[in-house]
From TrEMBL:
PANTHER family: ALPHA_BETA-HYDROLASES SUPERFAMILY PROTEIN (PTHR43689:SF8), HYDROLASE (PTHR43689)
InterPro entries registered for this protein in UniProt: 2-oxoA_DH_lipoyl-BS (IPR003016), AB_hydrolase_1 (IPR000073), AB_hydrolase_fold (IPR029058), Biotin_lipoyl (IPR000089), E3-bd_dom_sf (IPR036625), PSBD (IPR004167), Single_hybrid_motif (IPR011053)
Domain Lipoyl-binding: start-end pairs: 2-77
UniProt xrefs under PROSITE patterns: BIOTINYL_LIPOYL, LIPOYL, PSBD
Pfam family name, one: E3_binding
Keyword line: Hydrolase, Lipoyl
Record-stated family: Belongs to the 2-oxoacid dehydrogenase family.
CC cofactor: (R)-lipoate
Record-level Gene Ontology MF annotations: acyltransferase activity; hydrolase activity
Every Peripheral subunit-binding (PSBD) domain range: 138-175
Entry-linked SUPFAM superfamilies: alpha/beta-Hydrolases, Peripheral subunit-binding domain of 2-oxo acid dehydrogenase complex, Single hybrid motif
Organism from which the protein derives: Paragemmobacter straminiformis
Name of the featured protein: Alpha/beta fold hydrolase
Keyword Hydrolase among record annotations: yes
Amino acid sequence: MAEAILVPQVGQDLTEAKIVELHVKLGDKVKKGDLVAVVESEKASFEVEAFSEGVVISLPWKVGDVATVLEPLMHVGSEGEVVAATATAAPAAQVAAPAAVPALVVAAPVGAAPVGASVVAEPVRVAEPVAAVAGGRRASPIARRVAFDHNLSVERIAGTGPKGAVVLRDVEGAIASAPAAGSLELRTLQSGQGTPVVFLHGFGADLSSWRPLVARVGLGSPMMALDLPGHGASQRHVAADFAALVDAVGRTLRGMHGGVHLVGHSLGAAVAAALTERGDLDVRSLTLISPAGLGASVDGDFVDGFLSAKSEGALQAWMRRLVSDPASLAPVLVRATLAARDEAGLVPAQARVARGVFEGSTQLFNVAAALRAYRGPCTVIAGRDDAIVPLREIEAAVPAHVALHRLDRVGHLPQVEAADLVQTLIARTVRSAG
């Protein structure tokens, strides 16, 4: 089956990338790890690698084109295979968003996504005329007017219209998810119907790390995410300890009437479990990936090394601890993490969070009791080769009524090394809640 290699990008508000090099042409054979292209964002250039072996069967862009992020850069499949029309142009409304910024809690890498992945269609609307606004962001006149009326800047709203333009539905989504005073910003990653699924990243990442995984889950539910205090757009929110992290997220989510499904990774998974004890949030299901908070141990050397790394080589050396197979850590992901640190104050903010939740190689919080008390559908996914949070401590803490999936040859990032299985387990857990 053909697989799409997507256009990568870094940054929460960047929606386009320029194709500056193409190293393949139609009919060329590629194997996993081959350099196939170089794209350029506003901050840096990034190499794009093949994530599977096959033949280039679709190449919609040429050098010099400006492509929309997370749309197919090319398709790799079997010789003679034809790409379906719907796969050649994935709707920007579903995926136009920043790519993953991996770290201790990175989500699936920008790269291979199965052709025909299920997406939720928006109601048909008459196309809105768009025009560039100050700063270069394109927006329709009605989107600009409604944003102005609600004191919102279209420059800070992710566009899902043609070529990343901001249209009315984007502004309406931003209004609906506007944070209350003192809360975090909850963003919609994919629209849908029914009970929303909220993704919580962990230490060292931001909400954009979930976008590639969300595009593959195939649920019709609304998909949402937020940045934990000290991370991404929430780096100026102060949280002195784990309880403060949980409180900040809880304040943001408690207005979601009708329930919520929670998916978390590492530190984000611990926050998700702790939220079930608050009493002001109807948590319909839990999916916890490499959860922290179920034992005392954490790789403190990794945390310190990750925060102190300033060069690509140093960061790559530490990030290899996150995976079982170093080859699964694509160089573009290391560069993306490094580029995210251009944001002034990000690393100091993350260091403050680290001091509040870790002490050396010890976790200063525990959510095992919350997990034992929770009676909704719950799935725990952990790698047998996890060097950050030991599997043995997770196994000892997971109660009998919780489904525990132990993955062979997988480290702390199951969503990278076993992405297909992880997205299947997320969908199964959400659906089991009814």
